[in-house]
Amino acid sequence: MKREWKRIMMGIGTVAIFGVVIGWFCNFGMIGPGLPPSINGWYFPQPDGRYNDGTQIFANTGAEHYGMNGPVSRICPEMFPVLSSDCIQAQYERFYANDSGMDSHYIVISWYFNDAIKFSDAEHELNDFLKRSGTVSDISLDLNPEFQRISALRADNVQYSFTSVPVSQYTSNVTSGYFITYARPLIRDRQDYIVMYYGVLNDSDIRAHATFLTTLLVKGGFPQDPDVISQLSESR
Amino acid sequence: MNIHKTVVILLALLLAGMAMVPMVSAAESKLSSPSKMVNTDEASSVALINVQDIANSAPGFSEWHDSEVILSKMYFDLTGNPAAYAFNVTQNGDYLGYILISAQRDNYPVLECSRGHLPTASTDFVSRSKTKISESQTKDLVIQNPVPVYLGATFYYDAYPMTDKTGNVVDYAYVDLTNSRLFNSEDMKKEMAINKSSLKANVAKPVDIERLWSLESSPSVMASVSSMTRSSNYIYDVPYYAWYRGCSPTAAAMVLGYWQSHGYPNYPTANTLIDELGNAMGTSSTWPFTGATFPLFIDDGIETVAANHGYSGLNSVENIWFSSDHFTDMAAEIDAGRPFVLSMYAGGAALGKPDTYDEHSVTVVGYVGSLQNYLTIHDTWNSPPNYPLNDYRLLANMNWGGSMSDWVRP
User: With a threshold of 0.80, does the pTM exceed it?
Assistant: First the structure.
């Protein structure tokens, strides 16, 4: 009986070792998945074109004209806590003053994490900060008008299975906008986490800027799977 | 699939992998050897040669013709060895960009070139660095002027020596120039461990690097650089697709996406096409191989998708290369107007980029043949909506341990 048991254990061990060797061998020959170490910037809005002076612009944003203000920067603004060292931001502005002469300035920030705990801690830290410095509420942002308006401009014709996304809406005198998070958006077993912010600067009237903020969000693209998209987690 | 062929190729891959381990280790161990150092005169000469070379051959750099190079900064590594020389590219006093030349012979001569500015030339970055270091001021230690540190593309630091009352350097503090993060020595070691994969960006075949340095140190090259025979070609309208499902189907989709707008309209585009190719070439969707594709199935997958859309005449030909140089073959394919898929093992980084490709498929859309041969690629990492990096990349020929190409001939 004891000898029989030994034989079974040796058999299992041999199969396990063989499995590991075969697994390593198969993996060795494969190409991919081929993602970069960080996918920060993956969901950044891209201007559609340039004016003759080289200014980068967004097309089809209604009667007004918007463009990027300077290059994309790896230095995050000080208006929010330092959530991650892998952080990028870009600023945008309304190009031509309207009749009231009031230009508006916008910002998009992306924080990247490759660790679920760091991501969760950052979410809570950010949420705590937002509650102290302004007003936060979870809303469902309707994307349908933007999808209809700009889908014709997208080269890749991506079709989404959703028409609204959950976001955390933040308002304060310094900045107001939408936070949205993507948890493991490309490969479910790879640790990629992103917090995105789309906001207007120095304005608490988010309704006045909701259209362009939604445009920025849609132009950045979304993960195909709606389950990976959510607003900021509640504070602990 | 021919089983015998598969087994032979798998064994060859195994041997290639075993061969690559000592190759990488050897390259890393040579970094601090004094005999490998490049002096400023040599670096200046190499910079000038390459600026003219780039002006003649690289898309978008034609204004660098007849420009001058002026040494602007010298960078060091963490052990104090010279790492790189930065030269401003100027013409009649106007700044046109910069070129970074390695200060060590066991790295590629040209580390970066750009029409933009170095982080160390940004007053914003520099002032933030000074502000940050002032936060770490203590009573016992005096912060000295910073030493510029370069550890690979995008890894620029200021290293501040901290001296005690007797003037001895007892520690260093580091500030990441691009994001103003402050590190003490211990944190810097941890940061380097995290970034280890990125910092091997320029580790490549020593034999290629030695050939390049010997070529660029030759007096005859300097004299003949303006009249050298060069060749380059670029297929402009190959679409950019962002990574989706796996790099191999994404790279193949860019090739078929090109043919979709060149006489083969039945193909879908973007993610729909990538999904079809992923299914046809058996790209895995399950852990631990999620997104991985066995390279021998790439050509079969392309042919299957083509046939499914009514183009059964499409011929996809796989070429298995390990260490041999097939730049001429690849250039000929581009000259024929046919983009193709290149799959790499132990792939290095693109010019001026920090991240190595490792096991990765890309779409080759052009080439630059000159002192150093480059492939112009869409690497699936730089597509809309990935805005900050939306551009083609230049990958040094043979900057990989092994490779396979899949021609696509409709």
Answer: no
